[in-house]
């Protein structure tokens, strides 16, 4: 991207001509440059932004500009004092498009700023602390064992507030399940050892072991596993049996005095491992189904498995390779919470 100058009342306050390339605009922009200026309320100033456009290459220019107001130096202490006087403290933390984007890679999974400190200090003085994570990807939670509950809200949009209240007061049963694995540390993630590559070349050395497939295969303990999620009701799997090769029948029971939801998941594991490639996953998700169970009720559920559950794509032959031999179907509520195992032979 072309260099930019920001001129305030005739004075150049920002010039990013020497800023290194990368970060914004899918790596084609420049890293953020900031400055601090003193302003007086009611004062009129001229504000000019110059973009030095070079009509070569892609011929594109753009900029992102913003301002932060002065911070109240006592906000942290004020929040902690309020929490100490409350029965329940609800702390909303997270990120936004200043911190994560499809246009660049994060170099940390820690919450920005002093948010981890805020949660930790509130948890020390509050009777009960509930943390709402408003982020679009995994973040670390060093305070996890000090709080009573965590709701991972992701980026839910403009109805976030109304939906959150419905969940917190119990009008709606939390029924979401994690579509990704939440790691304990950035160093625990599959691509950490290989990213961003060497000499301008990024090699995907983890192969097919991405996401939960990597954690389950290498035995790395996540903070929360793929498919995990809790609700107010305790809904458990009582029993499971095969229904042909591509179906599983499951008995689900709700021990609670209110209706609950469970997402039953089925993973397939190849028991005959000899001769399999090094990136063959320990298990893979082959089916799942969401079920609502009445208070103190038991429900039978049928889970249809993926038609390609027992096939693997072979890039060398450009064709599907059919599994054969002994297969174990693992029925559970996450990739790490397996309640029943079913043996089949192909």
UniProtKB/TrEMBL annotation:
<dbReference type="InterPro" id="IPR036881">
    <property type="entry name" value="Glyco_hydro_3_C_sf"/>
</dbReference>
<protein>
    <submittedName>
        <fullName>Unannotated protein</fullName>
    </submittedName>
</protein>
<dbReference type="InterPro" id="IPR036962">
    <property type="entry name" value="Glyco_hydro_3_N_sf"/>
</dbReference>
<dbReference type="InterPro" id="IPR050288">
    <property type="entry name" value="Cellulose_deg_GH3"/>
</dbReference>
<feature type="domain" description="Fibronectin type III-like">
    <location>
        <begin position="262"/>
        <end position="335"/>
    </location>
</feature>
<dbReference type="GO" id="GO:0004553">
    <property type="term" value="F:hydrolase activity, hydrolyzing O-glycosyl compounds"/>
</dbReference>
<keyword id="KW-0378">Hydrolase</keyword>
<comment type="similarity">
    <text>Belongs to the glycosyl hydrolase 3 family.</text>
</comment>
<dbReference type="InterPro" id="IPR026891">
    <property type="entry name" value="Fn3-like"/>
</dbReference>
<dbReference type="Pfam" id="PF01915">
    <property type="entry name" value="Glyco_hydro_3_C"/>
</dbReference>
<dbReference type="InterPro" id="IPR002772">
    <property type="entry name" value="Glyco_hydro_3_C"/>
</dbReference>
<dbReference type="Pfam" id="PF14310">
    <property type="entry name" value="Fn3-like"/>
</dbReference>
<dbReference type="InterPro" id="IPR013783">
    <property type="entry name" value="Ig-like_fold"/>
</dbReference>
<dbReference type="GO" id="GO:0005975">
    <property type="term" value="P:carbohydrate metabolic process"/>
</dbReference>
């Amino acid at each position: 991207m072309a260099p930019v100058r920001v001129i305030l009342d005739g004075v150049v306050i920002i010039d990013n001509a020497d800023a290194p390339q990368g970060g914004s605009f899918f790596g084609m922009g420049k890293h953020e440059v900031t400055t601090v200026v003193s302003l007086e309320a009611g004062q009129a100033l001229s504000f000019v932004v110059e973009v030095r456009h070079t009509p070569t290459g892609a011929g594109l220019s753009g900029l992102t500009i913003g301002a932060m107001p002065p911070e109240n130096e006592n906000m942290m202490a004020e929040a902690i004092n309020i929490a100490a006087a409350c029965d329940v403290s609800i702390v909303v933390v997270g990120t936004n498009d200043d911190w994560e984007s499809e246009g660049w890679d994060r170099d940390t999974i820690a919450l920005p700023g002093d948010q981890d400190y805020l949660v930790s200090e509130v948890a020390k003085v509050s009777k009960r602390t509930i943390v709402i994570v408003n982020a679009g990807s995994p973040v670390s939670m060093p305070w996890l064992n000090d709080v009573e509950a965590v709701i991972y809200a992701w980026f839910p949009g403009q109805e976030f507030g109304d939906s959150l209240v419905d969940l917190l007061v119990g009008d709606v049963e939390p029924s979401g399940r994690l579509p990704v694995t939440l790691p304990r540390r950035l160093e625990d993630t599959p691509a950490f050892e290989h990213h961003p590559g060497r000499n301008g070349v990024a090699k995907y050395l983890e192969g097919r072991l991405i996401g939960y497939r990597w954690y389950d295969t290498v035995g790395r303990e996540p903070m929360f596993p793929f498919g995990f999620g809790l609700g107010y009701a305790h809904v458990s799997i009582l029993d499971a049996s095969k229904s042909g090769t591509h179906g599983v029948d499951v008995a689900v029971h709700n021990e609670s005095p209110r209706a609950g939801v469970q997402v039953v998941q089925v993973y397939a594991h190849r028991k005959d491992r000899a001769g399999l490639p090094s990136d063959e996953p320990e298990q893979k998700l082959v089916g799942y189904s969401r079920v609502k169970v009445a208070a103190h009720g038991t429900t039978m559920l049928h889970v249809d498995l993926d038609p390609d559950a027992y096939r693997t794509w072979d890039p060398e032959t450009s064709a599907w390779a059919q599994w054969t031999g002994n297969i174990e179907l693992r029925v559970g509520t996450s990739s790490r919470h397996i309640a029943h195992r079913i043996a089949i032979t192909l």
